[in-house]
Amino acid sequence: MAKIEIVYFSGYGHTDRLAQAVAEGAGSDARLWKLAEDGTLPEEAWEALDAADAILYGSPTYMGGPAWQFKRFADDSSKRWFSRDWQDKLAGGFTNSASTNGDKGATLAYFNTLAAQHGQIWVSLGQAPANTLASTPDDINWGGGSVGVTAISPSDSSPEQGPRPGDLDSARAFGARMTELTRRFAA
């Protein structure tokens, strides 16, 4: 069994749904750890991250980057960086914003850099974009990302209305990919 830990922040509930979809795809190998409103995690979560085979990072994209709560988590991870506790663990990421682009790539780049600083091995989305005339938001990877999962939740949508179905399917497929690769890598 692969140990996949998903650490994320959600401000309005949309990124909660995205994290849950990633976890559904990953199956029983995954656990969710939601950052508190002040960006902290309980000690139990830190211990789980230290023991993980893979760590997935998630946050909404606010003003071109992750939420400050996620940044606090990243800063708090510096003790693990110093002792290389997360060296060679697999990593990946997901983000959500209200706009089609929404500068989500900057948030995924932040996650990728955090993973690289920890010596982790980044896993890409692994999905072709839905980029034909017939493509709709219900298609997997409609946003066309490749670094990680990107989702759109319109600014006036409730968490039940966003992210869109294709984004949630993309997140589930990414979770399944992470489980497959983590099992292969850990073998």
Name the descriptors.
187 residues, alpha/beta
Tell me what you see in this structure.
This protein is α/β, with parallel strands linked by helices and 187 residues long. It is 39% helix and 19% strand. The chain has 6 helices and 7 strands, in the order βαβαββααβαββα. Strands 1, 2, 3, 4, 5, 6 and 7 form a 7-stranded mixed β-sheet that branches. A hairpin with a 2-residue loop joins β3 (54-62) and β4. α1 (14-26) crosses α6 (165-186). The N and C termini lie close together (10 Å). The model has no long low-confidence stretch (mean pLDDT 95).
How would you summarize the topology of this molecule?
Elements: E1 4-8, H1 14-26, E2 30-34, H2 43-51, E3 54-62, E4 65-66, H3 68-76, H4 78-83, E5 90-97, H5 104-117, E6 121-122, E7 149-152, H6 165-186
Parallel strand pairs: 1-2, 1-3, 3-5, 5-6, 5-7
Antiparallel strand pairs: 3-4
User: What is the alpha-carbon Rg in Å?
Assistant: 15 Å
Helicity level:
25-40%
The residue ranges in which pLDDT falls below 50 over 5 or more consecutive positions are none
- Biggest sheet overview: 7 strands, mixed
Q: Write the H/E string, N to C.
A: EHEHEEHHEHEEH
Note the beta-strand portion. 15-25%
What distance lies between the first and last C-alpha atoms, to the nearest angstrom?
Answer: 10 Å
Can you count the helices? Answer: 6
Could you report the average pLDDT, rounded to the nearest whole number? 95
Task: Give the CA-based shape.
Answer: globular
Structure summary, number of beta strands: 7
Structural class: alpha/beta
